[in-house]
Amino acid sequence: MAKKKKKQSIKINNKVKELMDGEPFDEGIKHLSEDILVELTMLLDLKVAMLTRKEMVRSLRQVWSEGNTQLRLHIVNYLEQMGIKSKKVDITDKVSYIVSLLENHEHDKEEEQQILSAFIDTKINKINKEKIANKLNYIRQQKRMKFWEIEMEVVFNALSEMEFYHSYEFEMNEETFFKSLLTNTQSIENNLLLDEDKTDISTTLERLKSAAIYQKNREIKSFLEIVKTDHRYLSESEVTQLIRSMPPEDCFYEIDIPLSIVKEIISTIDSEYRVTMQGNNILVTKDKTHLLYGKELPYTAVASYGRTLLYRNIWREELLPLQKDISHIKSEMKRQFDHTIKDIEDELHQLSLKLDIEKNLIEKFILQFIEPHVSSALNLKIKEKVKRRIVYHFMEYIRPLKEKRRKEELLAKTIRDFKNLFPLARMLKREIYFHVGPTNSGKTYDALKVLENADTGYYLAPLRLLALEGYENLKAKGIGVSLITGEEEIIDEESTHISSTIEMMNGSIDVEVCVIDEIQMINDRDRGWAWANALIGAPAKKVILTGSIDVLDAVTKLCEYLEEPLTVIHFERKNELKLLTQPTPINQIEEGTAVVAFSRRDVLGLRQQLSKRYEVSVIYGNLSPEVRREEARRFRDGTSQILIATDAIAMGLNLPIKTLLFSKDNKFDGLRRRELLPTEVTQISGRAGRYGLEEVGYIGALDSKTLETISSKFYQPLPTLELPFSVMASLEHVMLIGEILETEQLCVILNFFADNMEFEGPFIAANLDSMLEISAIVDEYHLDLKTRFHLACAPASISSAYIESVFHR
Q1: What is the pLDDT of residues 780-790, one digit of tens each?
Q2: DSSP H helices in 521-675
Q3: Where among 348, 379, 412 does a domain terminate?
Q4: Element (H, E) at 644
């Protein structure tokens, strides 16, 4: 195992050198761009006071040094996905510049060398007198700390605690011995060591050491009272020997216990248990069998325990839950195995619909692959590649039969009547409900309440963050739910509900209720087709739309075309919005404020300014899903006081915003820079004063010009949206076109759709630029057409290096 870890560590270090011009991590990290450093710092949730290059590099070096193999691999994978390549800094004339700045301060040669080392890799335009002075003070503080470490015979750790070794007396029943143990004091205030009076400092530090020794003696006494007599698992001699041999740094209740003793303890519970050690875990296994189609399949149930957890249970004389755990693991393995087999059966059955394939043939197909897999692995977990192999061979078997059937069905299909390309939706005789109202009127809240009470349901969100919020809210209420977005999937095999971005709607599975959020987005130039497809094809008995009044006429006409009843329910805003009469300078921003910017650069610039006084959360499109999720959570639970975000927050994110400030009155919409539209001002402003969180919402701006523009747009009525709307081919449509064109190339199919499709009804072909860009990427890989189509539907722009890297994984 040690050799395997060493080999993996060498492999990781070699990979780092490939990415960093042959340098190790500690050196190469200095040359990464600040954008990469910021993203990596946020992804690892590092507590950095200020996002300066020096602090980020220092924190990342520490994480790398102290991290395990798994963490290092996580960092390397991220750097590889980002496609980074470090670039060394040009140091021409930098040394003389640094020395000239240093002349303003008295210093010695050693301090000069330390200053040069600290700033030699920093961009020259980032170096100034203040930074030099601060660094010089820091060096002197470190020197003073080193003096007291030597003077007090201690080491100051990262928590500002003194660490030192001290000899302690252990009184056992028949013997007394002394043992040196690592001892930690309380944290020391930063300014204590700056006191000029060394006597006072020495007295304080000695007092802290004495207090730490006293506390450690109390811990020893408490520990010995439990373990030194009549221990449930350990003899008196074993207890004494283990304490004697414990490393000085160990905790008392986590003292290592030899595997031989652990085996003896566990054998008294069940002699059939086998015990092995794997890294930091202790594995307890037992042989079992499971019946499949009349065949006994051998497997082993394995319970894994962290060494320290098991040691703690033994030292504290707690009952070991092995039998209960093994029984639970066995039951769970069998349940998952049976569920997987049922899924395979169902998939093969679906593949062979109308082909008259007998059930025992499907079972035989499954068993011939499952039996050797389980018998060799001694594990009931069925790998995905085994499932794919079964499905592949079954599809090869039924291919001639299915080809004949498909040709017969193609004769009866049409590609002109778009609404009938969603046969399941047409068959359900749907009822459409439109919750019409401004932001914060409760229209979406009421719709989601209906969804929560439904046996099955879909929530189709305009944003990944909203899909995540819907997922988390449903999960918090005990509802089985899956999350599907363009960037991530969290699948619960037993879920009854799905929360997804609207492009990922599955039109082939019917549900009781489907909520389509922000229906006014049906008019969006690039993504509107997804709302149109959802309104036409959502496979639910009850479809609930939420949106603003400007889309009501268009929705009414669409429902008349679909010949489906529409019920309109009007909502009024639940709390007041007040427009501030004066701009709010950035140095007067209060807690609970959201500042809206319209570019990543502006978001990060505002964060740098505001983070000097507040904990700040940021949300913008190019953040990875983990970081976006964490930033929203921090602002929601009060960990951060200020939110800086792009206009992504306009789409209903439930955040406790008291005041919303516009940083600018214009944005780049993908084609040109323009002033904000009244609909955008209204939608973004509505995020302030969320009902139940803030009773009044305040709207303002950082400067007078922006406030003037926002004020003029704020009261303008919304223009009515007009037909026709863009639509996009469903998966069935894409498959049909592929059959007709005899091609599997998604790019060819989508171009054909855009160039040649004419529809009956109020529709036009959608703008497919983004989908065509993505399809050109996914067509390079050996994926089935269905998978490539769903990837192309993801609401993502490959102008982001991160998003493009995700598609290339």
Answers
A1: 888 888 888 87
A2: 528-537, 552-562, 600-610, 625-636
A3: 412
A4: strand 642-645
